[in-house]
Amino acid sequence: MVWNAFDRTSRAYPQHDFLCVPASAQEPEEHRLTYQQAGDEVEQLAAGLAAAGFEPGHRVALVLDNRADFFLHFLALNRIGCSIVPINSAMTRTELAYVLAHADLAAVIVLTQHAASVGAALPERVPLLIARSAQASFAKPSGAPAALPGEVAMLYTSGTTGTPKGCVLTHHYFDQVGAHYTGLGGYCTFRPGQERLITPLPVTHMNALGCSLMAMLLTGGCLVQLDRFHPKTWWTVVRDSRATCFHYLGVMPAMLLGTPPTAADDLSGVLRFGFGAGVDPRHHEAFERRFGVPLVEAWSMTETGGGAWITANREPRHVGQRCFGKAPEGLQWRIVTDDGSDAGCNEPGELWVRRAGADARYGFFAGYYKDPAATDAAWAGGWFHTGDLVRVDEAGSFFFVDRSKNIIRRSGENIAAIEVESALLRHSQVKACAVTAVADETRGEEVFAFVVLAEGVSADAATAELLREFCAQTLMYFKAPGYVRFLAHLPQTASQKLARGEIKRMAGQCVSDSETFDLRAAKRRHT
To answer: Is there a contact between 391 and 347 (Cβ–Cβ < 8 Å)?
Structure first.
């Protein structure tokens, strides 16, 4: 259990900092807890939750943002045998309603400011409780299935079929994530009781929920959790929090390189390494040269966890070439071409992975909740099909090439093209559409939509903005199109399906065309 790891470490390092949440616009004062202080709060919270009616097997959604309350409730619920479903408070009512209904929840715990929006999307049978105010008892919903055996959390990921899939993550999954990360060595060596890992990544993703948290729990370090990434104050917060390492998304190096140079840019005496994925090749070497900190690129997925995780934590890292390291011992892999054959040296193909030994799924997720067909499809032929196109050189180093699945990776968020297409098609002025990814200097990738309008609709900037705003009403703001281009018809294959390859090629050519409407400035987080 995650709680057991915390309990062991709190006994070894009771006075060491466990959690530091710096002050922010949402949290005016810094929140800092030692392992002993956190343990006391968790025990008290767990007792209150148990008295309120929470019991082993309950699955509970948490809408608590990147705050101390999230980690304390996670540990307290884990302490009494409950599973959690982290929820992004930025979800629209439509997105919330789907996840909250699909997850078969016993309850939802929210911050006060999210109670109204979450409550409006909540199934009638599910109680809504305010964080730290769960003293009111509630009855377990009749007929609601319990969490799966050994389940710790269920994370929802963008599905290529249009609706998010619930990834079931077990105790063993979390144990393996922590063991793998803390056992990497090389650039990613964790010194017991000494590390302070700062991350702005959302707790609704596996990186913050599992990787950074478990690494600190297993080594007696302090997790410095930010509300989100603020480039202007990033280095000040890094220094003030006494961070020794950090987690990043590809967008972060790009934005930090865009800040004015200062005499204090060299952080080599402060930070030991950055750990993440997706740094733009043009920025990788420039970042390391300016700030003096190695950016360690890695590859993994929510589904693969510690079972299939590759990291460039040792030289040669091939900086600026999208290299993410060499396969660790115990990982079996294939690079598979379109015709199903194994790719040759440096030939791109889809990455398939599994564990060596009797259990090919060792360390992986338990499956997609209520979707065994999707789970079986992902594991077709006894290999997990990642959907990522990579190549491997003669020395065994892996290099990321592209995604074979129709997913846009924008600022670390996976966006299913079909989900955006479905939203657009609900508008009466849209006859047909196709969505794909285009490169973006800052965000990594951006959402590009080709749209065929209904007869008589003006193909102008006002219509493009109308469609972006329409999507933003049912999808989180970052999923809405950043570019819209109107066409008379969409490229199709001989079997009348969308020619996805041609569509992506066209988008790359059209992104700077005068007939393409650039809507990126309108895509803003609502605070």
So the answer is: yes
C-alpha 440/C-alpha 442 separation (Å) is 6
> What architecture (CATH level 2) is domain 2-311?
3-Layer(aba) Sandwich (3.40)
What angle do the packed helices 417-425 and 461-474 form, to 10 degrees? 110
The superfamily (CATH) of domain 409-522 is ANL, C-terminal domain (3.30.300.30)
3-class SS at 470? helix
C-alpha span between 501 and 93 (Å, rounded): 33
Domain boundaries, the chain: 2-311, 409-522
pLDDT tens by residue, 25-72: 777 788 999 999 999 999 999 999 998 889 999 999 999 999 999 999
Q: For residue 14, which amino acid is it?
A: P
As a residue count, the chain comes to: 527
- Residues 282-292 as b/e (b if ≥16 CB within 10 A, e otherwise) read ebbeebbebbe
Dihedral, CA of residue 370, residue 374, residue 375 and residue 378, to nearest 10: -160
DSSP string, 210-225: IIIHHHHHHHT-EEEE
Structure token digits, residue 505:
């090629």
CA dist., res. 148 & res. 184, Å (int): 30
DSSP H helical segments within 241-379, as ranges? 251-257, 281-291, 372-378
| Main-chain phi, psi angles of 490, to 5 degrees | -100, 145
- CA-CA distance, 466 to 343, in Å (whole number)? 45
Query: pLDDT for 328-346, tens place per residue?
Result: 999 999 999 989 999 999 9
Angle, in degrees to the nearest 10, between helices 2-12 and 35-52: 140
Strand order in the sheet with 444-453: 430-440, 444-453, 483-486, 517-518
Entry pTM: 0.87
100 within 8 A of 121, measured Cβ to Cβ: yes
Are 452 and 473 in contact by the 8 Å Cβ rule? The answer is: no
140 band by pLDDT with thresholds 50, 70 and 90: low
Q: What is the largest CA-CA distance in the chain?
A: 71
* Residue 234: other Cβ atoms inside 10 A: 18
Residue 482 to residue 444: CA distance in whole angstroms: 13
Angstrom distance (rounded) from CA 84 to CA 77: 8
